[in-house]
Amino acid sequence: MTNLGAEEEVESCHYQFELPKHSLMFYGFWVIFIVIIVVMTHFNDYSEPIVPWDNCDMNNTWEPTTRPFINKMQLKSELLKIASFREKNRLYRRNNFTRIEYGTSLLSYCKSDGQLICDWYNKKAFVPVPGGHFVKSITRTIELDPYFSSGLRFLVLECMSFRMTMALVRTTDVLTSKINPFPRVIQFLLSSAPWISFLQSLSLFLITSLHSEFDKEYLTFFQPYAFSMVGAFTFLEMLIDLLHDAFDGRFVFIQTPRFYIKSIFFVTFSACFPHVILTWMQFQKLKRCHAYVPLIDGLFEYICAAAIIAYNFINAQTRIQTFISPTVRDVRNVSSYSSDVYSPVCYREKSMIYESLSDRK
Which UniProt keywords apply (predicted)? Predict the structure, then answer.
């Protein structure tokens, strides 16, 4: 049995994270999954102006199915459930609200833009769509379509750890790019990138999880704050990433075309997102039955989404090769190698957990 050499150690015992190789694989999966989610929204009617038929035929009002009962207690429970539904349905109908379906829950209501359109021949009901509303809103689709919101929620959770790792690698790479350490304020700003990435992912998770009706009693009040947090933390994430480029000690990123393109996406998102927030708050106050909005409102939403995706894709092209190295303490806790067989490359020097080996071209 022989001691491991430096190259053997790096190959066998160090975690390697390489950009853009790993990031392109990740974003390729991300793009494919987004396409699948968008296609799925066109195979259901949740965000379309189609509503259940009982909104037109008041004599055939839908009611929840009654479960089989075997004793008086269960019968009483079923009767209370039906009575509660009838009372809620009557209250909403009296105020000209329309019942819609949301996944497995059938007790969701919205406000129509006008009189319902009833097709008595085909037994179909529609809500009118105002003229000029022909672009499907992303934020409204999240509220109305359970498949779209659950798909985005899965995507956000899958991306969370990877994006935090990318931010950590980039931060470590920049902080070790100079012999002399950065000032403490700069170190704090650059080191906050992984946490800002986490908070942005958390905000995206909240807006895809909270529902204006089903979380009405406890958490709906937090919805506007969640949307505002997405804008604020995305702004900070882009800004801190641009600071990474500006303070990198080995390459003048600030003079490259990529830096200016990223800056354009940063300014574009910052200018468009406030309009998206204001438009969504109008929808949140009075929930409509479809996801279609005027061209300018939908365009701002898609510009913001495209700016985020393009910014992250361009940022992932940064060439970084990072190894997470074990410390001496880690080596002593590894049962497969004894201390006389394996020791870190920096065994006799000051051991660092993150050893950044960057190769920029």
Answer: Membrane, Transmembrane, Transmembrane helix
